[in-house]
Amino acid sequence: MDKSKDLCGSCGMCCDGTLFPSFRIYAEEMDLFNTMSNTIPQSCEHFEGCNGCKIYNKRPFTCQQYKCSVLRAFEDGKLSYEESLEFINPLKNDKNNKELRSDFISGRVIEHITKP
Ligand code: SF4
Ligand code: SF4
Prior knowledge:
By secondary structure, the chain is mainly α. It has one domain. The protein contains 6 helices and 2 strands; from the N terminus they run αββααααα. It has a two-stranded antiparallel sheet. α3 packs antiparallel against α4. The longest helix is centred in the C-terminal third of the chain and has 12 residues. It is globular, with a radius of gyration of 14 Å. It starts with a helix and ends with a helix. Bound molecules: iron/sulfur cluster (2 copies).
């Protein structure tokens, strides 16, 4: 398993409803879900906790494209794996914290490492 997939596997907050109440898919992806709508509520029916996404290899385009600021910083080499977890875990351990959630979505949790 590559390290990015590993990091997301230990997080899951863009699938479990912590960050987003729902997400959009294309009409041709609707047969992947138990729905007649192209708006999929979170927690996603394919989210399997630590095991990640049940349909990972054929997950919707939206899911393939989404990378939070922590994952991007990790893939850019600005954060180590352990440092990435230090940004993920506070929200993971306090999922109803609106301020932490807002800072995570906006990237403010890591903005001090992205400033020149
Ligand atoms: S919130 Fe970020 S680190 Fe967590 S699963 Fe989504 S993309 Fe991966
Ligand atoms: S389809 Fe998979 S990657 Fe997309 S939200 Fe659901 S569990 Fe997450």
